[in-house]
Amino acid sequence: MSEATALQRFGDRIGKMFTSGYDSVRNSTKRKAASPILKHEDEELKGRDRHSMIGATRDLARNFAVVAWAIRKHLDYVSMFDFQSRTGDDSLDTQIETLMRDWQRPQNCDAAGRHSFPKMLRLFEAARTRDGDVFALKLQSMQLQAIEADRIRQPTDGSDINGGTWVNGVRVNRAGGAAEYALFNRANGQNFEWSRNVPANRIIPHGYYERFDQVRGISPLASAINSFRDVYEGIDYALAKMKVEQLFALVFSRDADASAAPLEGDEREGYKIDFGRGPVQLDLNDGDRAEFLKSDNPGSNTQQFLEVVLGIALHSLDLPMNFHDPSRTNFFGSRAAWLLYDRSCISKRADVAE
User: Fold this and answer.
1) Within a 10 A sphere around the Cβ of 171, how many other Cβ atoms?
2) Which of 29, 154, 261, 263 qualifies as a FRET site for 59, CA 20 to 30 Å off?
3) How far apart are CA 184 and CA 165, in angstroms?
4) Strand extents, DSSP E, the chain
5) How many CB atoms lie within 10 A of CB 119?
6) What digits encode the pLDDT tens for the residues 152-188?
7) pLDDT (tens digit per residue) in 305-316
């Protein structure tokens, strides 16, 4: 046995001793390597990255009809509630429900006086779906003031009067719980200026959380943003290609030297075609050929692929694909999909009810 072979076998044995038995942690040139650096979830998405994420989800909801529909469908199943008192005393229950109906009017529950309480619940859930979280500020007037996610930001110099650890606009205590929120006001439509720090007992947070240590919520659409944008842009490109094909509808192929149509400043004669006068008959010379430019755009394979990508993206909200396209399954398949989706909404409804 040569010395090189012995060294190689020794190296292989040492490598096996320090190699994990899980293939998922082994690096490979075929896939992206997983990072061994474990971070706080709020470190994964903070500052400008968080603001970019919020801007991306808002832009999709504003401009892509499928995303706007998906959010509305999610709200239909998650945010519809009626208050019912259950004290056991019918007379008292009636009085409480009467008081609640009166408080739920826009001028009584909304600090801005625009929305009834059921509408506020729907808007709160829509905001946490797009932005990751949203906040309700409890006022002494017994009203609620909605605080959108981008108004809770890292405090600027001079606002951090209580010290402590600030995480994406929230001062946390040693246990990781919220102690204070840094509230900013919008200035000139785009800029923000610090307003005040609000104690946590006056704030009701409403967000999507996936980890115990997480302080700020993250939108469930985060995992689907790129897929939605790809489909959105792909549709635009397909429509642009279709318009180009319609503008350049007729193609001439000639064996002769002369042009098939008159050219400006050219003395050669060709064919003059006007489709605006009804049916056209072409009397072509020998060797000339005219045909309409057309293609299968977008092709059936492209359409199927876009549907697959769209279905994967809709899974970010647990929505089954047959909600978007009922023709994909029969009644029994639709009912099974609905039952599975309804079960996925239980915890989301519980968050809103809380």
Assistant:
1) 21
2) 154
3) 18
4) 133-138, 144-148, 165-167, 170-172, 178-187, 191-199, 203-207, 250-253, 289-292
5) 15
6) 999 865 444 455 689 999 999 888 899 999 999 988 7
7) 889 999 999 999
Task: Using the structure block, give the residue that is written with the tokens 């046995």.
Answer: 1
Beta 133-138 vs 203-207: how paired, if at all? Answer: antiparallel
What is the distance between the alpha carbons of residues 164 and 179, in angstroms, rounded to a whole number? 9
Pairing between strand 178-187 and 203-207?
A: unpaired
Cβ contact 200:177 at 8 Å: yes
Residue 269 φ then ψ, to 5°: -100, 150
Which own/partner pairs from 116-123 qualify as long-range (CB within 8 Å, at least 24 positions apart)? 118/80, 118/81, 120/144, 120/146, 121/79, 121/81, 121/352, 122/75, 122/79, 122/80
Nearest-angstrom CA–CA distance, 219 and 225: 10
Tokens describing residue 301: 């394979």
With b meaning 16 or more CB within 10 Å and e meaning fewer, what string describes 73-105?
Answer: bbbebbbeeeeebeeeeeeeeeebeeeeeeebe
The token duo for 55 is: 């801007």
Query: How far apart are alpha carbons 39 and 87 in whole angstroms?
Result: 46
* Contact (Cβ atoms closer than 8 angstroms) between residue 60 and residue 225: yes
CA angle 198, 203, 206 (to 5 degrees): 135
The angle that helices 331-344 and 346-353 make with each other, rounded to 10 degrees, is 40
Q: How far is 96 from 85, CA to CA, in rounded Å? A: 7
340: Cα separation from own chain's centroid: 22
- Residue 169: which of 151, 152, 185 has the closest Cα? 152
pTM of the model as a whole? 0.79
